[in-house]
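[Automated response] Your request has been received and processed.

Submitted sequence:
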Amino acid sequence: MIAVNRLDHVGVRVHEFARTVAFYQQFGFGVIRDDRQEHVVVLRNAAGTEINLLDSADAPMTDNILMDQAPRYPGYTHIALQVADIDVTLRDLEAAGITVTEGPVTFGDGKTSIFFRDPDRNVIELTQLPADLGSRYDGEAGR
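Generated structure:
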């Protein structure tokens, strides 16, 4: 078995660095590396979650081929970021002018999530763990 310690980062192809950096800064992400020669801007938040923005998109996207079109292609469909309180998060999204596209929805495992899009139409899920199961999710990998 190949042992994986944790997720290192998520790579997101974007059309315009400045617009996307400003968007993710609303969620506490800051630039830790800006390398225009490698066409990457690396963002990290206080919890250590890292997103690599890659500026190789040819044009702005009007549809997300994995989520908005009838054929279902394989691929990564979204990133999910954990939040402490979904109700507070909803109010913060509304105050920031970010449109929620789905939710809140509570799944069978008790997680409650909301979904929205970044400026390049990539799907982001914000999820709150259920209070009674929160400790089950901590350190559960590899069991």
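Summary generated for your ticket: The longest helix spans residues 86-95. Helices lie at 17-25, 86-95, 134-137.
If you did not submit this request, please reply to this message.
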